[in-house]
Specification:
single chain; about 375 residues; alpha/beta; six-stranded parallel β-sheet; 15 helices; 8 strands; globular; binds 5,6-dihydroxy-NADP; binds zinc ion
């Protein structure tokens, strides 16, 4: 295991009705906030009314930025930062999924950035940020408990991640009942995203990380059991609760402690989103099994066998057969949730941009991935997904 620092300062308020405790946390630092939300789901579900009612009772004033889009765009970040500056707001409160939370984090940093905000994202130039609070409404990205935010600039087909400890939310409300209304496709995409976060760390060339491996295998099994249950019965509290907590633990640094390879599937998928604006988790469901097939070799076989036996319960004497069965089971699981198996299923019918996307994807440090990937490798993976 490599050396590491683990720092997860976010206060998690988990359970039904826990939103009532959020104003108390906010009041420690701010009495005037920016409230950020997406395309309207929080108004339809009543979460907006609940939170603004609590703000009124607690004497918290707010300005609003609604309409933040999936794969949040830099224009929303600019609009939010301007509101914060204009009204001298002291914190940002995100109410939504990963897109809303990521946009809120970029706003929190953007308030203090002098100059172009895309430049801030592009260079990961974060020196200071307003405190961020979140009310999570779908289980997927883990943004509620980490310091990452992913922002898109569709004018130049770029999707970039900023990372800073300053962006870790101060407190996050995780009420599983808020996820009952997440549509089937988004629920399934969220499950694929959570699993990918775990897989990206689990498939590592660092051996003997028994704690991280055991946690990862348990989290993957949770996703498989409860992912299916949540898709079948959206109001299954146990399923929604387990998925929600798994989403936070999958990417808060816990499973990546002491491992530390560059993430392959995310680099490959982020280019698909940057060019085609697709749903992140659905893209990962297509890319992950293809990446598995591309990297399976004598060198990676042991890890695939552990994955097959410990996660999928596959028994068998022949290691390659176990590995191939594990890959097949992964793909079947995603399609059983209603996710597409191919890029065509996501509306991508041509290989025309594969070289361009591969050129950008490898810049995400893919030379230092679990199995190093060059442009030809990435083009081959895109092609096998078509
Ligand atoms: O916009 P609204 O109306 O709220 O609807 C959203 C949106 O259309 C809807 N939704 C969310 N909660 C709902 C709901 N609908 C009904 N009931 C609810 N309770 O779901 C749709 C998708 O929401 P979005 O926030 O886009 O999904 P997700 O949480 O998957 O976030 C995806 C974004 O996060 C980035 C992705 O690249 C993508 O941009 N990621 C962020 C990461 C991070 N910060 O650490 C890591 C990830 O790997 C990922 O890259
Ligand atoms: Zn992801």
């Amino acid at each position: 295991m490599k050396d590491f620092t683990f720092f997860a300062p976010t206060r998690i308020l988990f359970g039904k009705g826990k939103i009532a405790e959020l104003p108390g946390q906010i009041k420690n630092t701010a009495d005037k906030v920016l409230l950020v939300y997406g395309g309207g789901s929080v108004k339809r579900t009543g979460i907006y009314d609940t939170l603004t009612g609590l703000f009124k009772s607690a004497g918290i004033a707010w300005e609003e930025l609604g309409g933040v889009e999936p794969n949040p765009k830099i224009q929303s970040v600019i609009a939010g930062a301007e509101l914060c500056r204009k009204h001298k707001l002291k914190a940002v409160v995100a109410m939504g999924g990963g897109s809303v939370i990521d946009c809120s984090k970029a706003i929190a940093a953007g308030v203090y950035h002098k100059g172009d905000l895309w430049d801030m994202v592009d260079k990961n130039d974060i020196k200071r940020a307003l405190p961020v609070f979140t009310v999570l409404t779908m289980a997927a990205t883990g943004s509620e408990m980490n310091g990452n935010a992913v922002i898109s600039n569709m004018e130049i087909n770029e999707k970039k991640a900023i990372k800073s400890e300053l962006l870790k939310p101060v407190a996050s409300v995780l009420d599983p009942t808020y996820t009952y209304t997440v549509p089937r496709f988004q629920t399934a995409s969220g499950v694929a995203d959570i699993m990918s976060h775990i897989i990206e760390c689990y498939f590592s060339d660092v051996h003997c990380a028994a704690v991280q491996d055991g946690i990862s295998e348990a989290l993957l099994k949770v996703c498989i059991e409860y992912g299916k249950a949540a898709v079948v019965t959206p109001t299954d509290y146990t399923a929604r609760a387990n998925l929600m907590w798994a989403s936070s633990l999958a990417i808060n640094g816990l499973t990546s402690c002491g491992t530390g390879n560059a993430w392959s599937c995310h680099a490959i998928e982020h280019q698909l989103s940057a060019y085609y604006d697709i749903t992140h988790g659905a893209g990962l469901a297509v890319v992950t099994p293809a990446w598995f097939e591309h990297i399976l070799s004598e060198k990676t076989l042991d890890k695939f066998v552990s994955y097959g036996k410990n996660v999928w319960g596959i028994s068998g004497e022949h290691p390659f057969a176990v590995a191939k069965e594990a890959i097949a089971r992964t793909r079947e699981f995603f399609t059983s949730l209603g996710l597409p198996e191919t890029l065509r299923g996501l509306g991508i019918n041509s290989s025309g941009l594969f070289h361009q996307m591969a050129e950008k994807a490898v810049k995400d440090d893919l030379a230092n991935a679990y199995v190093p990937l060059n442009e030809d490798d990435v083009v081959a993976i895109y092609s096998s997904c078509l």
